[in-house]
């Protein structure tokens, strides 16, 4: 996959040196008055040019009758005008030479066909004129570093956000405002905030791409309902990953899984939301389930410290809390590994009454000697081998006498280890929390949320450190649009490296007998026809045929059945194949997502796929490491490791097949609708994988 | 199950009219000084009698040289003395005629064998003397209604909790203090708080039982690490359920699943924690995963309003939040059912720009006319048929101008519907939240937490309204301690109503042939021996035997194999059975939990049980409705509904079998260790269930 260098197209919008406000109102409480109010309150240092034909000044700032009258060329125009005046305003912006315009007004694509037409026309005009558009139907953009607030969001009413490590991108203005408010409340500053609304031009993918290369962003929060430009979105996520910028994503619409109409078995499992899960897994994006989780993870990311391992140290004043944190650690995949024996002995010498294995329960008695507590923490960090430690201190930080001494003791214990992440589960009033944070600790009231956030950081760390082998895509001739027979499908995929059984197609009974002799008995016979997809339904399959006579008779039987049930079908002969060998039956499929293109599905066969929906998706193409992660992520993974004494399955060979099918699907990006390999039998380790059946449906030929 | 009337034994401890403090210190910051300080600060109106041989007064209160000197008989004594003086103090309490003593000091069962011995001796002394004990190694007890604070918990340092609808029971003093602190912070008052520590006498079960019948408790929060008295715990939970008192439980130790040694297949799946899940499901307890969730649910319960259905109305200012809440609703099992068409029309007339189906997205424009918003909410409540409604208002309540008007508008819309639960997802400073709560709304910052809490209330409502048919337990003769053969096991369970195949045991080849003729061919042959558990391993099973000659020959073959492989085994003959019929293979088992007694397990056969651990447990006995809930709660439930065109399975008959095995297990409470019915084939609807194999292991005869 090629990685596009992000456009500089958003530079002017995020860092304008001057701003025009078309339709600026003198009333700072009105939608059309708020942007100017926020620019003034935010201390924007660049030029501010209100345009209002009816006033000399607006909110005390000199106003202009028209954009043409403005005595400079502003970088950005905020269009606080009704929808009916927007088209003309866009033309005026182009005439003036403005780089970017923000359209606040609604009434476009979201309101129906007519609005969509107008929106398209405006976008066309802007594109032709070299003007970038944000919106329409958006809440705008801001950058507190330079006091630029190109927004009318009500959420700035009480307080403006300060600058900081966060970049926020939201398709919903309300949600973008909501998380900006929560971020400020949590003490996380924001350097860039953008709401993309109807995305007539600038979309969430371009915004992500832009933020992924900004050196002054440490974490990106995004809210997405649906992506328009799949390839660009992937490219943006990969850029972010390579630049070690965590993306904390809220993608809504999970409950609409399955709403999408689907044309094949594989595709029917590929609800759009499952595809997003695949994309996020593939690029190391953290998908938050709740807003609180999204804020928590972003808060933890803002330190820029990502634990290299999943080993978690736990220090607690209460045994119960230690168990609670251990339970949570298991749930989130962190390892509460025991302290080395020598370190345990040191701790026991310090605090004879403590549990020292991990969790280290100092009991509340540790508060009687803060030096001992500090030393205890130091030993844990020095000898425990933990990249991250959680301390549980309940409401002690909020007590009058112990708050400061406790904070100092923890800080002293940690002072030699600035590379470690220390999260405290504690209750404190806002000023207490701020003081603890200033000492270098992450603070969470709830211990579970602390564990969840640390686990997310471990996930980012692993994703950032990946150096996967790249998949290789060979240019491939089109497969055309005609339906493929099973044997043609197998030939096609076999050439691409997918292993099938030694199968032969015979056109006569005598040839069938000779083929079976060559393959060895027993064999399976199947009718071969591009027109018959479900062969068993017409009795077109015979298994366990034991000798040449049976094969020759079977040939005639199958031909007769085909002629009887499907006289119209084109018959290419009878397939002769060896009997299947024992192994774990899996399913591999490819479908086309309208946004992201070819998607590979993998699942364990039978009820696992059909009833339990235990399947996993990845965008094609992907490399071997991703294929292994894909296999490892299904719930029934243990079935491949050998159950009840059966041999472990050849997962390496399975991963190879997944890589190859993904490369094939990517090479045929435009001409394949679906592929079903079902079943794909995974044999014992060293014996490989064999696909027993193949269905390839070219694009534009869906029945 | 008999329901014990709870003892009044805790009345004196929770509502003492006077209190002695043995070892009371004049220093109010010391552990031994804090209880007196808290009693004074709490305004306890009863008698307070500090006992301190060295002082005339303690913290300004007249002190006594010894308990004997106290000029009254206090109800309760707080023992703030070292462990070494505790035994004598207990004797003194008995001599004085005190009803209950609280032992704060540690160094007993939790410190090892020696401490356990001392603890037992003190408990024996107390029991013989009619003195109830709380602790040792506990943080005590409090009741803010009367200012009684028999505790030294540090968490009261800054502020005392006020009275309210909450009862808190915790085995951990630190965790009990932690949640009491959080409850106060959340504005929920506490009427009773007890920490049970080492539970030498008073345990969590008795405390629950006591709280379950207090009219001034609306919700019980509990923290449990392990229960000592299973039957009493069950009785307490059932009392709470019948009295419509929600129990919000934190049970820690989930990650130790499987640590328990187990002697049979069924038992090895019955990790102790899974048994707690079963108990909680059975008695309608809400098991919280996180502390935050525990507080959230208790907070929501404190209103005492429990929605009768799972239909959820959603009002939002933002479409994105509406999708987010819909996603969460699906996750938690709530139904965002659409508004009736007539009501949708009314809403559309009110707010033409709104989405009106449900979620009702008024958009932020609704804030321009609060009367319209109020009317909108009124229509939703009046015509939507929702018992619970969530409103999403982001940070609007925290704006200077809109906070009050918004609150009034929502209250106006809700005023005719005091029986509905209204939860608001909103951001507000503490005083803003308090004002909204005072208007009758539940307030959650995060919408997901609001949905989760409402879903918990729906769960309580359903549990409270259950009127299950009671299981019937017949007195049963002991099955002895000798191992049972398969046929004996089947006879025993067959008599208890478990359906098996028409099977016969033949002692000769000729008898085998005659039996097979009577049953009909083909048949299965199995060796019958109480000494051979795994028959297939010695080739002791033959399937699909087609005629009399085969049966007679097979008889001899099986006898020969048994003689060869297990010459020592007692052979009772050969079992003749019809071939199994097709259906869904399930597993039913019984194991003995050391705390709760017989436990019934159910799972779908094969990998579902072994790899996916898709099994569910219930304490025996239970009725039909519980059996149905049990079946419905497994992940693979869809397999019983007919997959890929197969007929739906006879779930009614399956439920009957579960009830019968639970009744059998309860009747044999003391003499059965495990039962395995594997497989139990569930046939098509109307055709019943048939168990193919049975293993019964009596107690005290484990191999």
UniProtKB/TrEMBL annotation, chains A, B:
Alphabetical list of PROSITE patterns matching this protein: ATP_GRASP
Keywords: ATP-binding, Ligase, Nucleotide-binding, Tricarboxylic acid cycle
Any one Gene Ontology molecular-function term assigned to this protein's record: ligase activity
Family, similarity comment: In the N-terminal section; belongs to the acetate CoA ligase alpha subunit family.
Protein name, entry field: Acetate--CoA ligase family protein
Highest taxon listed in the record's lineage: Bacteria
Domain ATP-grasp residue range list: 490-526
InterPro entries found in the cross-reference section: ATP-grasp, ATP_grasp_subdomain_1, CoA-bd, NAD(P)-bd_dom_sf, Succ_CoA_lig_flav_dom, Succinyl-CoA_synth-like
Alphabetical list of SMART domains matching this protein: CoA_binding
A single GO BP: tricarboxylic acid cycle
């Amino acid at each position: 996959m090629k990685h596009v260098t992000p456009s500089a197209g958003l530079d002017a919008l995020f860092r304008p040196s001057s701003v025009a406000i078309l339709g600026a109102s003198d009333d700072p409480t009105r939608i059309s008055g708020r942007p100017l109010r926020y620019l003034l309150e935010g201390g924007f240092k660049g030029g501010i040019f209100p345009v209002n034909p009816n006033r000399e000044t607006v909110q005390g700032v000199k106003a202009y009758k028209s954009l043409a009258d403005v005595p400079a060329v502003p970088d950005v125009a905020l269009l606080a005008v009704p929808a009916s005046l927007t088209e003309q305003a866009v033309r005026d912006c182009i005439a003036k030479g403005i780089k970017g315009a923000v359209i606040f007004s609604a009434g476009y694509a979201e309101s129906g066909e007519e609005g969509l037409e107008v929106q398209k026309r405006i976008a066309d005009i802007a594109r032709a004129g070299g003007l970038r558009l944000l919106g329409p139907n958006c809440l705008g953009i801001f950058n507190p570093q330079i006091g630029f607030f190109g927004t009318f969001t009500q959420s700035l009413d009480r307080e403006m956000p300060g600058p900081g490590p966060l970049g926020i991108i939201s398709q919903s203005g309300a949600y973008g405002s909501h998380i900006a408010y929560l971020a400020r409340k949590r003490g996380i500053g924001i350097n860039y905030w953008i709401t993309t609304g109807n995305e007539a031009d600038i979309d969430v993918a371009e915004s992500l791409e832009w933020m992924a290369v900004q050196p002054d962003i440490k974490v990106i929060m995004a809210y997405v309902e649906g992506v328009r430009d799949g390839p660009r979105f992937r490219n943006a996520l990969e850029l972010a990953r390579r630049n070690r910028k965590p993306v904390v994503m809220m993608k809504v619409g999970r409950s609409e899984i399955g709403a999408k109409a689907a044309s094949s078995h594989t595709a029917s499992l590929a609800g759009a939301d499952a595809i997003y899960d695949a994309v996020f897994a593939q690029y190391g994006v953290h998908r938050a389930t709740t807003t609180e989780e999204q804020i928590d993870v972003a808060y933890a990311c803002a330190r820029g410290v990502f634990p290299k391992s999943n080993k978690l140290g736990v220090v607690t004043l209460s045994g119960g809390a230690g168990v609670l944190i251990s339970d949570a650690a298991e749930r989130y995949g962190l390892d509460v590994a025991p302290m080395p024996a020598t370190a345990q002995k040191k701790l026991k010498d310090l605090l004879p009454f403590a549990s020292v294995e991990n969790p280290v329960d100092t009991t509340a008695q540790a508060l009687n000697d803060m030096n001992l507590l500090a030393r205890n923490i130091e030993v844990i960090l020095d000898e425990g081998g933990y990249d991250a430690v959680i301390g549980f201190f309940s409401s002690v930080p909020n007590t009058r006498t112990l708050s400061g001494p406790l904070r100092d003791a923890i800080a002293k214990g940690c002072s030699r280890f600035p590379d470690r992440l220390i999260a405290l589960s504690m209750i404190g009033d806002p000023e207490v929390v701020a003081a603890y944070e200033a000492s270098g600790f992450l603070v969470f009231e709830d211990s579970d949320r602390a564990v969840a956030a640390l686990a997310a950081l471990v996930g980012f760390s692993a994703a950032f450190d990946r150096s996967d082998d790249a998949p290789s895509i060979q240019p491939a001739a089109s497969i055309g649009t005609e339906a493929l027979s099973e044997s043609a499908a197998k030939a096609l995929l076999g050439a691409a490296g997918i292993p099938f059984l030694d199968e032969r197609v015979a056109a006569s009974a005598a040839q069938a007998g000779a083929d079976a002799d060559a393959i060895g008995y027993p064999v399976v016979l199947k009718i071969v026809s591009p027109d018959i997809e479900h062969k068993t339904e017409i009795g077109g399959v015979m298994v366990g045929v034991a000798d040449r006579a049976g094969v020759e008779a079977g040939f005639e039987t199958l031909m007769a059945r085909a002629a009887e049930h499907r006289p119209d079908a084109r018959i290419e002969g009878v397939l002769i194949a060896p009997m299947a060998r024992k192994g774990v039956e899996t399913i591999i499929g490819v479908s086309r997502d309208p946004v992201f293109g070819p998607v590979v599905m993998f699942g364990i066969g039978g009820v696992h796929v059909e009833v339990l929906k235990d399947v996993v998706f990845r965008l094609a193409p992907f490399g071997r490491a991703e294929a292994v992660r894909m296999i490892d992520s299904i719930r029934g993974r243990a079935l491949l490791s050998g159950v009840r004494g059966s041999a472990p399955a050849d997962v390496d060979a399975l991963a190879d097949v997944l890589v190859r099918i993904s490369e094939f699907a990517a090479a045929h990006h435009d001409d394949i609708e679906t592929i079903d390999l079902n079943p794909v039998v995974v044999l014992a380790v060293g014996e490989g994988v064999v696909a027993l059946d193949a269905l390839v449906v070219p694009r534009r030929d869906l029945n």
